[in-house]
Amino acid sequence: MSAVDDRVIQLFEQLEVPEGYKAELLRGEIVMMAGPDWVHNKIVQSVADQIPRERWDRLQTQDIAIPGEASEPQPDLVVHERGAFEGPGRLVPAPAVTLLLEVVSRTSVHRDHRVKRSIYAAGGVPAYLVVDPLDGRCVLLTEPVGVGDEADYRVERTTKFGEAVPLDLLGVTLDTTEFRTLT
Q1: What mean pLDDT is reported for the chain?
Q2: What is the fold of 36-174?
């Protein structure tokens, strides 16, 4: 990382975010957005409830450290095997994570489908699930490859709301019948 990246990271870590907002650092850019709506929160809750707590930690509002990136994203849900990371600190290292979930909002479509896809793949996150209530679909991305802006996932599986989403890495089949759309 460059000195500019280091300064942006330092500024980001000292940023006071107004109540009702969240901030993320994505490839050296500080992005602030309003808090999520009801549909968003119900989807996150449904996904978390379907992942067995006995084996997996399911964390919301948890920042992720991406090696080699000037990025500290805050996914909607972070899933890692119990014991893979025990803290301390606000950043969970991407190598400890098994799955990240983002629920798309009207203002996050490009970030969730493109920017974070590349960032999470660059961090080697094994599975990235994008739930899009605008389109009524889920996109499961697995097998990350590459570095930096060129990183991506080799496997992409798209399902419509109401169809099951196999989360093989977690040993779970996700029921999406309760997912609502924003349209």
Answers
A1: 91
A2: tt1808, chain A (3.90.1570)
Q: CA 116, 76, 95, 169 torsion: positive or negative?
A: negative
| Both structure tokens of 25 | 């650092």
Count CA atoms closer than 13 A to 176's CA, side-chain side.
24
End-to-end CA distance of the chain: 41
49-77 per-position pLDDT tens digit: 999 999 999 999 899 999 888 899 999 99
For 120, other C-beta atoms within 10 Å of its C-beta total 30
DSSP β-ladder status, 56-59 and 21-26: unpaired
Note the pLDDT tens digit of each residue in 90-149.
Answer: 899 999 999 999 999 988 999 999 999 999 999 999 999 999 999 999 999 999 999 999
- Assigned token pair, 158: 């798209």
C-alpha R_g of the chain = 16
Domain boundaries, the chain: 36-174
In whole angstroms, give the CA distance from residue 125 to residue 67: 11
| Region of residue 105 (left: phi > 0; alpha: psi -120 to 50; beta: else) | beta
